[in-house]
Design brief:
The chain is an alpha+beta fold. The chain contains 12 helices and 19 strands. A 7-stranded antiparallel β-sheet has the order 10-11-12-18-17-15-14. The chain has a 5-stranded mixed β-sheet with strand order 1-6-5-4-3.
Length: 440
Amino acid sequence: MPELREVFEMVTKQTEPHVDAWREQEQRQRRASRNKKLAALAVAAAIGAAAIVVILEARRGQDTTTPAEQPPSVSPAVAVATGFLVAYSAFDVDRAITYLADDAFISELTTSVGAAEGVEGLPEELRLHSSLLQAVGYEQMLDSCEEMGSSTSGTRVRCTFDFHFLRSDQIGLGPFSGSYFDLTVRDGEIARASVFWETEELSPQMWEPFAAWVSATYPEDAAVMYDDETYTRARLTEESIRLWERHSRGYATELTGSGRTWRAVEGVRFSLQVPPRDALVGGWERFGRISINKSESGPQGAEGMIFWTSFPDGQYADPCANLLSPAVGPSAAHLSAAVATAPGTELVAEPSDVTVGGRAAKHVVLTVRESVGCDPGFFYTWQDLKGGALFPRTTAGDTIRVWIIEVDGTRLFIEAVTTEEASLDLEQEIQQIIDSIRFD
């Protein structure tokens, strides 16, 4: 029987500074700034959640609000679509059905992942579909909903979303973006619903490796779980759904049992070993697909961050043209030279030859002397919106360590940033994580 890793690989191959009183005050100001940002984000999230509650309760006809209190920017059709999708993502089928017209056509939604067998009628189809999504650890992050036009059939609303599937969040992959729901709202009810799943990243990272593993390890169960031997669609039966839950959990447990976290950048797959979480100090926290952050002295402002992307087209992040111009030459040596001469920095260790994951790499160490407005990664920028161990910006005194590895034509850019508050233990942890990197 093939080992999980063999199947997975087969399918996926593709001088501490002096800290005087002024510096201590600067660090206190930096932490206060980071904490204020988190508080502002929490307020914004609370306002957004309150708005959703107002919309949904208005839709259900309760007395807690009136139509005049509904946010003017949200149309009735968008409110109905949002309410349905909130119930859908919570696997609350009974509530979701209350949004549907009696003659609603939702087969394009319920059969999008698999085909139901032995059931007839809308409630049963939707229940099986919802049960399968729940069984495989589906997590939906609704982005936005907007009206796309109206006709005699009703008002069409498109809602974009990101999602986790097959417990990809536990494995360290995803969320996967680019998907959307198309909903037609007529007379305050959903008349038609369909979904487009963007699988360009999901398929090679999750669906295909899982299918290869389960079909090789549990062939008899796979015959029950899938519609046919192509392993492209699930079979929606109660027995099948129980197997999907059991084996998706087993798959994720085997992949993460060693404590390794899996990542992919421009088709380059690699894993890294993250130190176990300390009950008192805490541990490394995942920030989307771009980084892991660690706060040593509290739940908010982080003292350390490691992120990964590519160059010249940064995946999950945008390179700052004033620091890394697209005109940089094609090799890792060219890119490391550009890093070493970046404005606003002082060179600590010039580009040197090292090995990362058994591959040749370039390594550069810098100290930030001036903020250049490219945050939170100094050389790259991305939207820093979530809570947890925040690293919203690099500031004077921070240390930047960069590793550049060429893998099958892709220049993988891995950067670690630590503040002046970072302990020696944290810096050693970062090096241990980099030393643990392995490529598929």
